[in-house]
Amino acid sequence: MKCVVRSTRYCVALLLVALGLSGAASALATTVIQSESDEREYRYLTLPNGLQLLLVSDPEADKAAAAVDVRVGSHQNEPGREGLAHFLEHMLFLGTKKYPDAGEYQRFINQHGGSHNAYTAAENTNYFFRIDPDYLEPAFDRFAQFFIAPLFDEDYVERERRAVHSEFTTNINQDARRTRDVYRELFNPEHPASRFTVGNVDTLADREDGAVRDDLVAFYERFYSAHLMSAVVLGRESLDDLEKLAVPRLREIKRRDVSLPERYPPLFPKDALPAMVRIEPRQETRTLSFLFPIPDDGRHYREKPVHYLAHMLGHEGEGSLLSLLRDLGWAEGIQAGRGLSSRNDGVFQLTVELTELGVRAQDQIQALVHYVIQRLDARGVREWRYRELQQLADIDFRFQERVDPMRTVSALANRLHRYAPEDVLYGDYQYARYNERLIKRFLSHLRPDNVLVSLVAPDLDTDRVSAFYETPYALGDVAREHPEIKLSVRRQLSFPEANDFIPQRLNVKAAPMLPASGAESDRPELIVDSERLRAWFQQDQTFRVPKAHLNMRLYSPRVASSVEGAAQARLFAELVMDDLNEFAYPAKLAGLDFSVEGTMRGLDIRIAGYSSRQGLLITRIAESIRQGEFASDRFDNVRTDLIRRLRNENQVTPYSVLAWQIPVLQFDPYHSNDALIGVLEGLDRQSFQQFANRLLHDARMEALFYGNLFRQEGVRLAAFAEHQLLGPRTGRSQVPGRVFKMKAVPEGQPALYRHRIDHPDHVALLYIQGLGNSLRDTAHMRLLQQIVQPAFYNELRTEKQLGYVVALWNMPLRDLQGKMFVIQSPDTPEAELIEEIEAFLKSQREHVLAGLVLNQQAMVRDLREPAQSLAEQSGRYWDSLVLGDVSFARRDQLADAVAAVTPESLLAYYEAVLLQPARRLWLTTDKFNPEAGFEEITDPAEFRRGLDALIFP
Fold it and tell me: Residue 17 has what pLDDT?
């Protein structure tokens, strides 16, 4: 039974647990608060073994999904066995008593159009999957066995131990992990947050007093108890059928005699605060963070006192702390909110992203932060501001859109541990009552004598190195006295005024009159078709939410013609976003998001959210773009920050850096980060201003307006965009794009491109391209990926343990399909990785047809599924336009092409593409010294000159 109560804030579904179905679940009625836009049905159960279960019936779901959240995480690791909870998460996938094959679960999920994953956090471990709806029951049967009878096979224990170590080394240069490693050493050693969480070969090694497998089994048998678990199952079935599917399996999970501590020792040792730590990063990062230990606020989720403080201190609008720091040239960004957390404590963290000048002014910034906190206590805690947050949250809850089912079940399973069952959907949005005393109680912990100040910046003086990530740092006292803040500076600070962007008109616009034929188009129509503008429009009649998505792509000859143009377009977009930040920040809070991004051919402009105030925002965006004039100090700071971020992109995980080189080699126009940096470093403001003044000259535009709009509004938007964003004609021609095709000479050698990366791991990445860009090519390439992917992972990751990162990913360049086979390993040299991938591709020829029918059916179903939200549908329409598909029928046509694949055509395609060495492009780090057998690329431009190209406008 579903009893719906409508209001402006929420509707309530009264879901009664059916009696007599299994006798296994609590028969008490539970009221689940759900949004009036949510058409799903929910049922909450508590099983006799204590497991919490939420069933979600969604007849329109494109995928079924399930998740289990275990209220046990890395904080339950014993000292000396750091990483054990994370190691256990890895092991549960590798065979159970009922399904002993270690690769069977992943293979089954992939064959039926699904995916899966898991994560280990401080206080919980979360497992989840999605699959084609018809296969929920067999998938869930395999999934449930993880928590009933896992094998912990000794062979895989040793192999997966190396995989955990590989995961540790893969991320060893990530500054977030390196900084956290320092914090661990400053925490109270009695607190579990002081322990290493990931694990490595040392912490997970066998010892004289016990093997790691024994400790693994003991951890599982101690903590993996049903009463510490919550599960969510989402499918197309009715609630009764979902209950019959889930309950018999979940009630087999044992309830064990274990309880978890309600409290931990203090997070910091006595008298350790205040203190200051200076940390040297790997990347070019500069931040000043304030970590205030606070009590757990979880039981106050209905009032959200910490959210209120984060909103006030992290505000970016006019008069904010960030606004002042930007004007002073000291900062570029700010974040505030709960940082590290456990079941009974945590920290409130405020982080300022500094400029180089800001590092030198960090004493003054500390003074300003504490001054703003004092003012918040004196003048900033006001009921009207809380009511505004409440209003915004209620609107978002009322008009929330569907998200991916796997994300949904994973999040809900976790929330069942944090919220009362009736609030599992509403808890994130709930602002139940204004409680000034409660807000000020949490605010009282944000004191100068109760803070760890953390400065992260290059070239700091350090005298220590952290244990696991070898992070240089120094610990010292925080300044007891701060510089006095001038009155003129204090006057620039103020708390947010009322938000003018809160949508007032939330009506869904009436459907248009049907044409004389009586047929209603289910695809966008072309409303403007001129030489320089093509604009498409559709009024949404499916999702019925007061939102719209506006997408505009501006093509500029001055951008596409050179690396100088591309670099300046990137900077121009950053300056526009910077210029609009204070004005538009309230709009983002009110559910109206936007972006202006520089591309290799021009600008992308996107606005998404509540449609009632989009006109005001687009007018301001167009004004900033058209004027193209920016203050000198903002030009310098934004340019410097962009250069820094481009440099940092060159220092992320090695396989990601190598993947970014593929379009540099295969696409035009496309430029490397190093090339963009070279332009930006030598760019002066006068030259840039000349570029900005001409950016819109000779430009053309593609636009799509979709959502809660009338056709007349779409026509007006198109006219506005054409008038404001298309500059005069000067006779300069548009520059076409080109995708380069791999050589098709059978006797040729594979190409090799080596790229310098500062990381200890070895990486081999193989890029293989389809024969062409037809739908037939796309169908064969996508099917081959889906069939081969689980085998590639199982053989080279699970069985051979070559590295933590073993993956087969999609890498299309426009409509020309490409695939990346990737291995990143801490100890296997590139030459061996290449040999292993080569051997795998040869061995798979005999197996490629085994999964054809199942994978073919799953892919066709997936392509034919309708979009689940306004955002997803908008994305599909825009992707079609980008690829030149003005019929918006590509998904259906591709489904037909997939269905038409035969065993003979698939095997022939495998041999022509995956078994031809000349069609291969290998990418490695410069640690690899190749012998004969490769055509090494030393000049990307010269390499491209020898290739044929597909040209697009």
Answer: 36
DSSP string, 658-721: HHTHHHHHHEES---HHHHHHHHHT--HHHHHHHHHHTTTT-EEEEEEEES--HHHHHHHHHHH
Beta-carbon contacts of residue 524 (< 8 Å; ≥ 6 apart): 536, 537, 538, 704, 706, 877, 888
| Residue whose C-alpha is closest to residue 132's, from 405, 340, 348 | 405
3-state SS class at 528: strand
For 787, the token pair is 């069939």
* Neighbouring-strand partners of residue 553: 604, 702
DSSP state of 207: B
pLDDT of residue 279: 98
Domain range summary for the chain, segments of one domain joined by +? 44-250, 275-385+424-490, 525-650+667-726, 740-952
Of residues 117, 102, 1, the one with CA closest to residue 57: 1
Euclidean distance between CA atoms 606 and 705, whole angstroms: 10
Per CATH, domain 44-250 is 3.30.60.50:
no
User: Nearest-5° angle of CA 259, CA 264, CA 265?
Assistant: 145
In the block, tokens 């939102």 appear at 547
Reply yes or no on whether the pLDDT at 9 is more than 50. no
Please state, as a whole number, how many other Cβ atoms lie within 10 Å of the Cβ of residue 287. Answer: 22
How many residues make up the chain in this entry? 953
Sequence-distant (6+) residues with CB within 8 A of 273 are 293, 449, 450, 451, 452
Q: Which CATH architecture has domain 525-650+667-726?
A: 2-Layer Sandwich (3.30)
**C-alpha distance from residue 863 to each of 134, 139, 892 (Å):** 15, 21, 7
CATH code 3.30.540.10 for 740-952: no
Its CATH architecture, for the domain 275-385+424-490, is 2-Layer Sandwich (3.30)
pLDDT at 56 over 70: yes
In the chain, what percentage of residues exceed pLDDT 90?
A: 89
In angstroms, the CA 189 to CA 176 distance is 21
Amino acid at 835: E
What pLDDT shows up at residue 25?
Answer: 53
**Whether the predicted pLDDT of 11 surpasses 70:** no
- Residues 354, 281 contacting (CB under 8 angstroms): no
Element (H, E) at 332: strand 331-341
Q: Which residues pair with 951 in a beta bridge?
A: 738
> pLDDT value at position 417?
96
pLDDT per residue over 370-414, tens digit each?
Answer: 999 999 999 999 999 999 999 999 999 999 999 999 999 999 999
Contact in structure between 430 and 423 (CB atoms under 8 Å): yes
Q: Amino acid identity, residue 579?
A: D
Closest CA to 661 of 771, 863, 838, 813: 813
**Hey, do 275-385+424-490 and 740-952 end up sharing a CATH topology, with the first three levels equal?**
yes
Give the Å distances, CA to CA, from 634 to 315, 446, 579, 638. Answer: 20, 31, 9, 6
Q: What is the structure's pLDDT at 12?
A: 39
Q: What one-character DSSP code corresponds to residue 378?
A: I
Query: Helix, strand or coil for residue 281?
Result: coil
List strands edge to edge, sheet with 667-668.
667-668, 737-740, 949-952
Q: Which of 248-257, 473-482, 898-907 has the lowest mean pLDDT?
A: 473-482
Widest pairwise Cα distance in the chain: 85
Average pLDDT, the chain: 93
Q: H or E segment at 245?
A: helix 239-250
> What's the rounded Cα separation, in Å, for the pair 563 and 679?
8
pLDDT in tens, 510-557: 987 655 544 556 899 999 999 999 999 999 999 999 999 999 999 999
Per-residue pLDDT of 300-339, as tens digits, reads 999 999 999 999 999 999 999 999 999 999 999 999 999 8
Distance CA 147, CA 71 (A): 13
**CA angle 313–318–323, rounded 5-degree value:** 65
SS3 for 576? helix
